[in-house]
Amino acid sequence: MEYPSIVRLGVYDILMDHGHEVPIEGFLRHPEHSYFRAYHDIALVKLEHRVYFTSNIRPACLWYTESRNTTKFIVTGFDNNNSYGVPSTQLTKVVLEEFPGQDCAQRYKFLPRFSRGITDGQLCVGSDLEGRHACIGDPGSSLLTLTHPKTCMFHIVGITPIGPYGCGVGKTRALYTKVAHYLDWIEENVWGSKANLADTYKFNKFF
């Protein structure tokens, strides 16, 4: 399997603009993640050098508490609502909302990947409107909430899962990784004691 080697920032149309390309130094997958299960689906990407902000490249904060003052979220990607069609070449967005965990539990209880049910590290997110969801090309995208409209500041509440079922088809639900649940792990490996260890970020530790 070929590893991703760059991150592209500030891209709106993938046919017209390559954006700002930054080489990847390495990856760190959560130690409890398994490709055969739908839990701890989170990883970190370390870039080779610093990223400078522009009008098209802006930071987003991490949501840091278990409580949330909104149930409406935004997901962006290049494949929203194109479950069986041609992926979008332009960055698109869809507005989704949070649902009780039991909604997802009922839908996924017979699937082997969800053998442990719904955990504290997951959010049940979707839409009751037809055809609204993240899709095949969107895994890893951020589940965002706009916290400061005047300054266009977003917080990352969750991470789009791999392969949400029924994306772009019908009334859907999917389990998103809850960022606040993994904040200690993120901080330890980004700013903490493990951040600069030689074995923390490597290409061969991602897949």
Automatic annotation (TrEMBL):
Keywords: Disulfide bond, Glycoprotein, Immunity, Innate immunity, Secreted, Signal
Pfam families linked to this entry: Trypsin
GO molecular function: serine-type endopeptidase activity
SMART domains: Tryp_SPc (SM00020)
Predominant localisation class: secreted
InterPro entries with a match to the protein in the record: Peptidase_S1_PA (IPR009003), Peptidase_S1_PA_chymotrypsin (IPR043504), Ser/Thr_Proteases_Immune/Dev (IPR051487), Trypsin_dom (IPR001254)
Keyword Electron transport: no
Keyword Disulfide bond in record: yes
Compartments where located: Secreted
Ranges for domain Peptidase S1: 7-191
A single cellular component GO annotation: extracellular region
Gene Ontology biological process terms from the UniProt entry: innate immune response; proteolysis
Gene3D superfamilies for the chain: Trypsin-like serine proteases
PROSITE patterns: TRYPSIN_DOM
Database matches in PANTHER family: TRYPTASE-RELATED
Family: Belongs to the peptidase S1 family. CLIP subfamily.
Name this protein carries in UniProt: Peptidase S1 domain-containing protein
Organism: Anopheles sinensis
